[in-house]
Structure formats: C-alpha cells, structure tokens
Write a structure and sequence with these properties.
The protein contains 4 helices and 4 strands, in the order H-H-E-E-E-H-E-H. It has 109 residues and is an alpha+beta fold. The protein has one domain. Helix 3 links the parallel strand 3 and strand 4.
Length: 109
C-alpha cells in the first residue's frame, strides 16, 4: 500500500506544479499533500453501507475517490470526511485516466 501512496503523492505534486493551473471555480486551492496522504490511507479500500472505494488519489484540489455501488451515499459520507471529489468507478478505464476525467469534469484542468 505504501508504494501506491508514494506514487499518488508524486502525481499530485506534479499536478500541483502544472504549467496550466486549475481554474479558480469551482476548485479549491491545493490541500496539504501530507494530509491527503493520510486521508488516502484511511479511505482507500473503505467499504461503506452500499459502496466501496476502489481508488483514492491525491490531486491539486484534494483527494479524489472512485467508488462502486451507491455513489450518492458515498459522496455524502466521504465529502463529510474531507474527500474533495467522489465519482463512480469504471472498471474499463485506467484509474489515473478516471481521476483526470473527474478533474476535467469539475473544471479543474
């Protein structure tokens, strides 16, 4: 699990230093990467009532969680725990590509 966290934090750091900064709205300023890493450790693989986190990744706007199951319930519960964006897991698309897609849809790319 540590190698996954290190890779996620590296991607987040590179994303935060991107030459094209994310738009001001609706994205919040970058969160602390250490806090995101701690949150990713707690959220990654989490199984809630009716959903399961399949992937959690740090980004310039905060933690992104990809879930299978009840996405609305996951969004309510996980955002209350500090997750920035919660979207549905798509097993046909690579996890990092899904995170990029979520960030683009939120206007953060």
């Amino acid at each position: 699990m540590r190698w996954w966290l290190a890779g996620t934090l590296l991607v987040a750091a590179l994303t935060a230093c991107s030459s094209s900064p994310p738009s001001a709205e609706p994205c919040a300023p970058p969160a602390d990467l250490r806090e995101q890493g701690d949150l990713a450790e707690r959220v990654g693989g989490y199984a809630g009532d009716g959903y399961r986190v399949r992937w959690a990744a740090s980004s310039a706007v905060g933690l992104v969680a990809l879930v299978e199951g009840d996405v609305d319930r996951a969004r309510t519960e996980l955002e209350a725990r500090g997750v920035a964006l919660v979207e549905e897991w798509d097993e046909k698309v690579a996890a990092f590509a899904q995170v990029e897609r979520v960030l683009e849809a939120a206007g953060c790319r």
